[in-house]
Amino acid sequence: MSAGRAAVPLCCARRGAARGFTLVELLVVLVILGVLIALAVLGSGVAGPGRELHGEAERLAGLIGVLAEEAVLDNREYGVHLTAGAYQVLRYDPALRRWQPLPGKPHDLPSWAELSVELEGEALRLPQPVAEQGRQASPTPQLLMLSSGELSPFRLQLRERRRDGLSLWLSSDGFQLPRVELDGAKGRSR
């Protein structure tokens, strides 16, 4: 090596070579971005009604848990009036000796979902939603949350209306709060 010339790195020695990404490198980046976007869509629940159905089941289970706690704390009786496509919270008014809906309208399920309920092993025939049957004078709850801390023992099924749709169960033995469980017959995971 001569004393007057500095060592030039090999990467910079070819000044005439074009700089940029190759087609293969660009395709790899596009594939990675596609996979990340697909994971984000699946994780956000946009991918289908199964995640929304699970959210509805968790919402109902949480509502029943909150009502059970409120019943004990307020020393009042609460109930849930169920229809095939909606549910509404009621509170017993001892002065009027009847169930009163809490302020607000019933919570409607998505049009593609429906629920059914069993009390003491017997399937109940649920009424039509309040909007379809007109204003009912005093709705009666099917599920009770008592001030003693007890609940109505029940099994509630929340499912997609299509034949091969997801089916979830909420159940309580009357003392424990309900949990959301996957219908074992389907064998599908959430």
UniProtKB/TrEMBL annotation:
Pfam families: GspH, N_methyl
Domain General secretion pathway GspH: 56-165
Protein biosynthesis is among the record's keywords: no
Keyword annotations from UniProtKB, A to Z: Cell inner membrane, Cell membrane, Membrane, Methylation, Transmembrane, Transmembrane helix
Main subcellular location: membrane
UniProt keyword Membrane present: yes
Classification via InterPro entries: N_methyl_site, Pilin-like, T2SS_GspH, T2SS_protein-GspH, TypeII_GspH
Residues that span the membrane, as ranges: 21-42
Compartment(s) of residence: Cell inner membrane
Topology term for the membrane: Single-pass membrane protein
Family membership noted in the UniProt record: Belongs to the GSP H family.
Protein's name in the database: Type II secretion system protein H
Source species: Pseudomonas lalucatii
Gene name of the record: gspH
